[in-house]
Amino acid sequence: MRVIVGLGNPGIRYQSTRHNIGVRVLERTSEQWSIGLHLSGPAWLGQGHVGSPAQAVDVVLAIPQAWMNQSGQAVKALLDQVACAPHDLVIVHDDLDLEVGRLRIKRSGGTGGHNGVESIITELGTDQFSRMKIGIGRPAPGMEAEDYVLEAFSKDELSIVDESIDRAVLALECLVLQGLDAAMNQFNANEPEGEE
Questions:
Q1: Which CATH number describes the domain made up of 2-187?
Q2: What is the 3-state secondary structure (H, E, C) of the chain?
Q3: Tens digit of pLDDT for each residue in 107-143?
């Protein structure tokens, strides 16, 4: 089983912000895979299958209803709830070090300066879980990153972001059905290297 979690902040105020791109990927994945989400404990949660009946893989989709900086508690509770380990986990989140719309899949690693990922590593006591990073670009000089991530994408960026969300869903399907290495080989190709 794979547990796929999209990070963001709860509430209408934040739904279109750069920081919530992980949530938007999970919402699109839920639609594409016909896995409905319902509120269950600390997260919006859905469970279903991906792939043909002959090769179907069980998946759990989740959107924590916690502030980004407190994502770890919700993710730990979710893994306990579905009886899965960190190596079954895929975290989908925004990344300042990638250009807008770029994807990068990783097996494990540091926080990359991302408070949500840091919270998850702290709560789980390990960094051994997969991540899908979606680029949101860097703020203009003089603008704080904390303010930038809570802004909406510009009009010029919207089509790029929408395409990247569709691409992320395809990448998740590849990851689930063909494995992490296959997804990294296919979807990290020609992507810029992000900072750790």
A1: 3.40.50.1470
A2: CEEEEECCCCCHHHCCEHHHHHHHHHHHHHHHCCCCCEEECCEEEEEEEECCCCCCEEEEEEEECCCHHHHHHHHHHHHHHHCCCHHHEEEEEEECCCCCCCEEEECCCCCCCCHHHHHHHHHHCCCCCEEEEEECCCCCCCCCHHHHCCCECCHHHHHHHHHHHHHHHHHHHHHHHHCHHHHHHHHCCCCCCCCC
A3: 988 888 788 999 999 999 999 999 999 999 988 888 8
User: What are the residue ranges spanned by the domains of the chain?
Assistant: 2-187
At which residue do the structure tokens 């992000």 appear? 194
Whole-model pTM over 0.90: yes
Please give the positions annotated as active site: 19
